[in-house]
C-alpha cells in the first residue's frame, strides 16, 4: 500500500534549527511536496523535490533521497511564526498526492 | 496570492439535510480537488476534476457528489448529512501539467448534529 510517515509533533527553540523527517512508500514516484499549515488556515506550498539532493529556499531547505524513500524539511533561524503543522506529500505514478498526517511544530521562546 | 474561495467557512446542520459546499477559483486552473481533513490526520481526497465536465472519485467519494460545469466553480454536495461527515473540507486547485503546486481555500468546517 501507499504510506507516508512523519513525526506527530516536535518542539524547538526560537532561533534554533529543526529537521522534520518524512518517509514514503508509493506506487511510482513523481516528487515530494512540503506544505505549511497554520492552525485553522489553508495549507500553503513550501517546496517540491523530484531529484536527489538539497533544495534551499531562504530559511527553509528540503532534501530528498529517492533510493531511501526519505525526505526532510530543514528550518533555520526559527521564528515564533514558524509554529504550524508541516505536511509531507508524495506524488504517485498517477500524479495523485499521498499525504502524511503532518508534523505539528511548536516553537518556544 | 492564491485566489480560491470557499463558502461557508463554518456550517452547523442537522442530520439528513442536503448541503452544498461552494468552491471558486479565479486563477483559470484546470485541476480542482476536494479534500477532507480531521484534526491531526492526513488529507483524504474526496473528488477531483481535470477540467470542465470531468470529475473523478477519490478515496472518500461514496457519500458525496461534485460537478464541474464551469472552470472556476467546483461545488461539493452531501445528499444526506450524517454526524460522521463532521470534518474540515478543503478545496484546492492547480494549473495544467502533471506536476504543479496546489493552492488551497480556507476550508469549510462542517458540524452535523
Description:
The complex is a heterodimer of chains A (109) and B (113). Chain A is an all-beta fold. Chain A is built from no helices and eleven strands. In chain A, strands 2, 4, 5, 9, 10 and 11 form a six-stranded mixed β-sheet that branches. A five-stranded antiparallel β-sheet of chain A has the order 1-3-8-7-6, with no helix packed on it. In chain A, β9 and β10 form a beta hairpin. Chain A starts with a strand and ends with a strand. The mean pLDDT of chain A is 95. By secondary structure, chain B is an all-beta fold. Chain B has no helices and eleven strands. At the A-B interface, β5 and β9 of A face β10 of B.
Structural class of chain A: mainly beta
Order of helices and strands of chain A: EEEEEEEEEEE
- Shape summary of chain B: globular
* C-alpha geometry of chain A: globular
- Poorly predicted tracts of residues of chain B: none
Question: Total number of β-strand segments of chain B?
Answer: 11
Number of E-type strands of chain A: 11
Amino acid at each position: 500500500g501507499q504510506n507516508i510517515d512523519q513525526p506527530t509533533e516536535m518542539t524547538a527553540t526560537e532561533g534554533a534549527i529543526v529537521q522534520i523527517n518524512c518517509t514514503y512508500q508509493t506506487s511510482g514516484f513523481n516528487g515530494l511536496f512540503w506544505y505549511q499549515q497554520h492552525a485553522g488556515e489553508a495549507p500553503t506550498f513550501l517546496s517540491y523535490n523530484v531529484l536527489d539532493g538539497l533544495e534551499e529556499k531562504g530559511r527553509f531547505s528540503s532534501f530528498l533521497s529517492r533510493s531511501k524513500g526519505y525526505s526532510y524539511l530543514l528550518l533555520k533561524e526559527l521564528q515564533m511564526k514558524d509554529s504550524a503543522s508541516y505536511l509531507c506529500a508524495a506524488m504517485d505514478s498517477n500524479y495523485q498526492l499521498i499525504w502524511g498526517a503532518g508534523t505539528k511544530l511548536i516553537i518556544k521562546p | 496570492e492564491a485566489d480560491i474561495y470557499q463558502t461557508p467557512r463554518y456550517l452547523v446542520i442537522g442530520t439528513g439535510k442536503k448541503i452544498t459546499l461552494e468552491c471558486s477559483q479565479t486563477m483559470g486552473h484546470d485541476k480542482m480537488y476536494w479534500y477532507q481533513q480531521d484534526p491531526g490526520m492526513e488529507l483524504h481526497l474526496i473528488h477531483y476534476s481535470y477540467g470542465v465536465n470531468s470529475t473523478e472519485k477519490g478515496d472518500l467519494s461514496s457519500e458525496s457528489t461534485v460537478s464541474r460545469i464551469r472552470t472556476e466553480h467546483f461545488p461539493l454536495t452531501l445528499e444526506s448529512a450524517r454526524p460522521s461527515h463532521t470534518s474540515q473540507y478543503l478545496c484546492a486547485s492547480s494549473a495544467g501539467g502533471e506536476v504543479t503546486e496546489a493552492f488551497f481555500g480556507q476550508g469549510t468546517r462542517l458540524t452535523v448534529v
